[in-house]
Amino acid sequence: MSLADIVEHLICPVCGDGLGLGDRVLRCPRGHAFDIARQGYVSLLTGSQAPGTADSAAMVAARDSFLGAGHFAPLVEAVAAACRTGTGAADVRVVMDAGAGTGHYLAGALDRLPGAAGIALDVSKNAIRRAARAHSRLGAVVADVWRPLPVRDGAADVILNVFAPRNGPEFARVLGPGGSLVVVTPTPRHLRPLVERLGLLSVDEDKERRVAASLDGRFAESERSVHEFEMALDRAAVEAVVGMGPSAWHTDPENMRREIAKLPETNYVTASFRMSIFRRNP
């Protein structure tokens, strides 16, 4: 955990002034204060209504289990490599992960960017608690990607957006000159045998167009690639990958466990992702 590494890049979500680090608190010059949780994260989420899309504790535990087992390791490598595209590791000082979840991909990038600090933003306190201990140079912040981000103009050299919502105007404001936005989405081939066998949510064939539309014309795609690899998943891993994704909102856990129990002990499936690197339009 290191909010100290990122506090200079944060702003008060109430008034927009900079924040300073005090004794277990972040505070702006106008006196707005935000307590640092004992787990090391801070909530800069304003308003009393909790967002309905925040990952539950069960979803976060499933993601932690699945990613911790290394099933998506090739994707972690690809994301880290994309962070260096067009800049070089020495030039990346700040990586912001919008919708960071447990901080798994951001931590992987920081491992390969020795001089960089990471800002993990997620609306789920359950996820951010995990992210706060994902890397020594990562600062974890509860924030809603759909709202104005509590980050200074031009603070980020790289923005990561892995399976998360996109806020084109705010990404354009926060990304510094020459920076890159790395967006990762699943393709329709992702986990297809499990999607068909278990009735999971499928990937929209029109997703690529919707991704571009969500950036509000403020970015131009400079690179695009598809990353695929085979995975051998036992039933426990299948339960975890189902439980960590959007299908978890739409399936009954007990019914899903019964269906997973009917699967072979080892299930061979393809992980398939589209990675796009965007540059901000002039």
TrEMBL record:
An annotated Gene Ontology molecular function: 23S rRNA (guanine(745)-N(1))-methyltransferase activity
Domain 23S rRNA (guanine(745)-N(1))-methyltransferase N-terminal positions: 11-45
Enzyme class: transferase
InterPro entries tied to this protein: Methyltransf_25, RlmA_N, rRNA_m1G-MeTrfase_A_prd, SAM-dependent_MTases_sf
Enzyme Commission number: 2.1.1.187
One Pfam entry name: Methyltransf_25
Chain sites annotated for binding S-adenosyl-L-methionine: 72, 102-103, 190
Keyword DNA-binding tagged: no
Residue ranges annotated for the Methyltransferase domain, each copy included: 95-179
Sites where the protein binds Zn(2+): 12, 15, 28, 32
Keyword terms: Metal-binding, Methyltransferase, S-adenosyl-L-methionine, Transferase, Zinc
Protein's UniProt name: 23S rRNA (Guanine745-N1)-methyltransferase
Source organism per UniProt: Streptosporangium sandarakinum
